[in-house]
Amino acid sequence: MDPLQKYVAHLFSDYGDSPRIRDLKEEVLSNLRAKLEDLVAEGIDPDAALAEAKASITSVADLVEDEIKVRIWPFRMELTQTLLMYTLIAWIASIPLAVMRTGSFIGFVLICLSLVLAVLYFIFRSRNVSAYSANTSTIQLKTMLRIQKWTWRIWGLFIAAVFLTVIATRFVSSLWFGYPIVIDGPYQAALLAADFILPCFTIIIPLGVRAAVRFLYRYEVSP
């Protein structure tokens, strides 16, 4: 992959890989290559010409359409199925932590959420073979992309805050007064590990948003 291809891939890194986006990538890449060739033909140093060509396009946000039409029932069905899979995996992973009150509560919430998603999935699946499958809905793509970006950022900040809080409450006083850090047996070690592991189950939220964006491209109605 040449430098211009890498640069164009970076510009479109937030916009998925739909046929429409691939066509737009090719168009932008072709324009940048033409500009680079013109600059080099004018006698400009190749490295300086490459930098100038890149500087001519620093964002593709205005080129990407804000609204797309999506076949809404298949979209909802596959998104619900994916969320159900994520939730079931999280519930299975939480089973060893059920001996603790917090772990038991999270397991209960996950299994309830799984049941709700399973019901919704079968509703969408039963209607997908009918006239509902032809229904379309207009989605604000840029809004969804912003939501995806900020969901990951907020989740990362949440995890960092939780980890710092656990470290502060468990270890800071001992470190401050020079006491050794002592973990009294496997049960205390398990409790400490649970404090770090349990918040990570919330990753199904940003993963669900990412899946929603991916399925928007999959079920986009071709113009």
UniProtKB/TrEMBL annotation:
Q: What is this protein called?
A: Uncharacterized protein
Q: Which domain of life is it from?
A: Bacteria
What keywords appear on the UniProt entry? Membrane, Transmembrane, Transmembrane helix
Q: Which organism is it from?
A: Gehongia tenuis
The portions of this protein that span the membrane are: 79-99, 105-124, 154-177, 189-209
Supply the InterPro entries for this chain. Answer: Perm_prefix_1
Q: Which NCBIfam families match?
A: perm_prefix_1
